[in-house]
Design a protein that fits this description.
alpha+beta
Length: 140
């Protein structure tokens, strides 16, 4: 059985908050930019898991997360939610991952972005890019 995860499209104006995942080989998309979120525990709903994961990763509770869709591939079943980012990124505390940053539409389309903390351009995870492009297409 595939792991189930809850992930968030966190948006602020026309930008999207992404996490640069740790560059360790035993995780999905090591060293890639991706959406915040994580594994759903056995006793959790996707909605509860999303709130817990965002608290654990960036100390943020979204005011209202709306289900955007479900994306499945050979790695995981992803429950995707969209929510506004109502604080500046300087008010977030990164507790998991290598870096975080706001991406523009063109950076998402390009599929990569420079990381100040990594001091290099890092790729956007393919599934995360697809989810974000779907969201942008649907929401203008």
């Amino acid at each position: 059985m595939k792991p189930e995860v809850a992930i968030a499209i966190l948006y602020q104006q026309d930008q999207f908050l992404l996490q640069l995942r740790d560059n360790v080989p035993n995780i999905a998309y090591p060293g890639h930019w991706g959406l915040f979120g994580g594994h759903i525990e056995a006793d959790e709903s996707p909605e509860v898991a999303l709130v817990r994961e965002l608290q654990e990763e960036i100390c943020y509770s979204p005011p209202n997360a709306v289900k955007f869709g479900v994306y499945e591939d050979d790695r995981a079943l992803r429950h995707v939610f969209a929510a506004p980012l109502t604080v500046g990124i300087n008010e977030l505390t990164l507790l998991e991952g290598w870096d975080l940053g706001l991406f523009t539409r063109s950076q998402i389309e390009q599929g990569e972005r420079f990381s100040d903390r990594a001091s290099q351009i890092r790729p956007l995870g393919a599934i995360h890019q697809r989810i974000l492009l779907d969201f942008i297409k649907k929401n203008g």
